Amino acid sequence: MAEFWRDADDTDPVRMRIQIDQLLSSAQCSDARGLFERASLEDFLGEESAAVPLYEASLSHGLDVDRENQARIQLASSLRNVGRQDDALRVLEEFEFSTDYLSARDAFVALALWDKGGRCAGIAERTARGRSGAGEIPSSNRGLRGGVVQRQTTVRSERNNRVVDGVLGRSSCTLVSTTEEKP
Questions:
Q1: What is d(CA 71, CA 142) in angstroms, rounded to the nearest whole number?
Q2: Contact predicate 167/147, CB 8 Å
Q3: pTM above the 0.85 mark?
Q4: Tell me, what DSSP letter sits at residue 46?
Q5: Domain extents in the chain
Q6: Which pLDDT value is given to residue 155?
Q7: How far apart are alpha carbons 51 and 75 in whole angstroms?
Q8: Rounded to whole angstroms, how far apart are CA atoms 111 and 175?
Q9: Is the pLDDT of residue 99 over 60?
Q10: Which of 16, 95, 96, 175 has the highest count of CB atoms within 10 angstroms of its CB?
């Protein structure tokens, strides 16, 4: 599965779907894992509406702890992308994430609040509560990194090119730390 994701190419969705079906049919993985991988693929291909029910089904079938954390982050991201910010916030707030996922959770909460009109002050207050600094965002989370760039661009244009970098770290309004992605 790691090789599949390493070589993933969103320019050929049909091939990607065939490949994942072949991989999952030959792999000995749970139904929950298969649903999660299919949801992740739909998400990767930009088909968030198709990904949402697959993530929800994978969670209801019972994932291992690490994948449950991933699925909830990715589900919230997809919900946010289809305009369901309240549902995204519910997914993020009604689960106790592992420490490794707290920064990603906080950043997605910030993005959902931003989309709801919370802007910098509200976002900073909500996500910085009890946090001493930024953790790393899992490198598999392209959606978050893309959302951050989109938000920074929006802030630049709204604030006469004054860059506001976020919620979690460097300034009073920093969305994510600027750590490099690890391989």
A1: 14
A2: no
A3: no
A4: T
A5: 95-183
A6: 40
A7: 8
A8: 8
A9: yes
A10: 175
Token pair for residue 57?
Answer: 């089904």
Please write the tens of the pLDDT for every residue from 107-116: 888 888 888 8
The secondary element (H helix, E strand) that includes residue 100 is none
Judged by DSSP in three states, 174 sits in: strand
- 42/153: higher pLDDT: 42
Residue 145 has what pLDDT?
Answer: 46
Single-letter code of the amino acid located at 115: D
Identify whether the C-beta of residue 109 lies closer than 8 Å to the C-beta of residue 130.
no
Number of helices (H), then strands (E), belonging to the chain: the values are 9, 0
Token pair for 66: 């690490």
DSSP, residue by residue, 71-99:
HHHHHHHHHHHTT-HHHHHHHHHSS---G
> How far is it, in rounded angstroms, from Cα 61 to Cα 69?
14
